[in-house]
Amino acid sequence: MFLPGLPAAAFAALVEAALQAGAIQRSGPWLHLPSHSVALTRDETALFQRIRPWLDASPFDPPWVRDLAKRAGRSEAEMRHLLQKLARQGSVYQVVRDLFYLPENVARLAALVQELEHASGETCAAAFRDRCGLGRKRAIQILEFFDRVGYTRRVRETHRLRNADMFAQAGHAP
User: Fold this and answer.
1) β-strand 123-124 against 152-155: which pairing, if any?
2) Fewer CB in a 10 Å sphere around the end CB: N or C, the chain?
3) Can you tell me the distance from the alpha carbon of 163 to that of 83, in angstroms, rounded to the nearest whole number?
């Protein structure tokens, strides 16, 4: 989103050089100064360890914040705050306001987009929905998330791959 005229390869080289020099660090999808980090309290860490399997039980259709909160016996506000902190850390992705995915599951969904792109040159909502087994509304939410973060771009009624390597490291995120 910054230096929009810079070719992607040049930007990637610039970021890689800054990472190697220690001038910046990567936390999931985020780049930040080494002195900037989001830290969880001991209680938040324990709660994340408790809910993590619930987020992974249905990898393409994780529970909503309200359902996680109810199951954990916490308030929705507390659960939302934790998940937003985790998103800033790179430990989860916020797809819509109250829906969070683990990085490895976003990487799996991203791989489905790549498969569709390679097969037909684009991804349409119906093909993505059929491929991932989700309903139309959820499939569109995921595709819009991919557009928003720059993995894909919307072209009329389809989505075209824009940054194929964006989620390559997602399966190795914290």
Assistant:
1) unpaired
2) N
3) 25
Beta strands in 75-151 (DSSP E): 93-96, 99-101, 123-124
pTM for this entry? 0.79
Give the chain's end-to-end CA distance (angstroms, integer).
24
Taking the CA atoms of 59, 144, 65 and 52 in sequence, report the sign of the dihedral they define.
Answer: positive
C-alpha–C-alpha distance, residues 145 and 130, integer Å: 18
- The residue behind tokens 């934790």 is 82
Per the CB < 8 A criterion, the answer to whether 96 and 110 are in contact is: no
Phi, psi of 153 (to 5 degrees): -135, 145
